């Protein structure tokens, strides 16, 4: 059944009514909560936190297009930050992830996945290698408790719990600074060069003008398809002051969850709980590239679920459905909408996992799982939306060209 790929998502429920949902008692707040309120943000509960979805004076489309043309700043402090250290840290991460971290250079990072024993994705994550014995990882806010329990449980089982690997989590201000003018904006706040900091790499830099000599971690990355940075500031006071300084820059606007979702959809990025879950393998999720080629050998396949995942790679016909892009006009497809064959509308062939109107393109974009052979680019399909079948087409992802800052 396709439903095993697409569990219900609290984010989908949130997106149905941005303007009417309000944070309830007991939700957590990031260090920037008061600043969001002062900026006129509409706050909604998301992943246990009260988060900004839109700001006064900005529509969803305006926020989206501002990020594509200027510089948008996202508060992502709700995401969980980890340090994994110890002589066997690389070996441990290669047990729980399919990525070859031994091959990464210091201060290089990779998208990866935490895998359970069946090869299912516990969460997707960004892992930065600082050294063979020191890694920095960021995981999703909605999976905070699950991820912590998983990693700590795996550590207890790894080499009988005697490996000496340490796992710590920490809080602070975590900002995503995204858009074609992100570099110019960031350069105003540091004397350290950013010109040779390329996509997929990070470094520690000093922020100037905030009364501290402590360096902060900056990665050239993002979730929008644009050039940009993620900056981790453990000192909350410095983080709040830096955010306020960013808001004074004419190229900068704060951006909320609404535009964050449509930006990531255009860029073909997954959202855990929609496109991925703990029974979806990287191969199921069209993320085979996350399984490093060196990890597909008998010696390298030491990660959780390796037998199943390597078998899927070797025998792609055993994977019945594929994650694909969908484009359409009219009402936007949403999570859970059924996809049926254009030739036989009684035959369900897939299901939408995420969907939104694309401000950049002027039509709808979505992600879906579709059974083979209907997954091929250009295939005409029908999506059931509000009781009616709407025309749609299987399309290539990402839907837009990325603008990552890469070394020539």
Automatic annotation (TrEMBL):
Pfam family, one: GCV_T
Organism: Eeniella nana (Yeast)
GO biological process: glycine catabolic process
Residue span(s) of domain Aminomethyltransferase C-terminal: 322-400
Stretches assigned to the GCVT N-terminal domain: 32-293
Domain of life: Eukaryota
Protein name, as recorded: Aminomethyltransferase
GO MF, one example: aminomethyltransferase activity
A Gene Ontology term for the protein's cellular component: mitochondrion
Cited function: The glycine cleavage system catalyzes the degradation of glycine.
Family matches, as Gene3D superfamilies: Aminomethyltransferase beta-barrel domains, Aminomethyltransferase fragment, Probable tRNA modification gtpase trme, domain 1
Assembly mode: The glycine cleavage system is composed of four proteins: P, T, L and H.
Family affiliation: Belongs to the GcvT family.
Entry's EC annotation: 2.1.2.10
Source species taxonomy: Eukaryota, Fungi, Dikarya, Ascomycota, Saccharomycotina
Predominant place of localization: mitochondrion
Alphabetical UniProt keywords: Aminotransferase, Mitochondrion, Transferase, Transit peptide
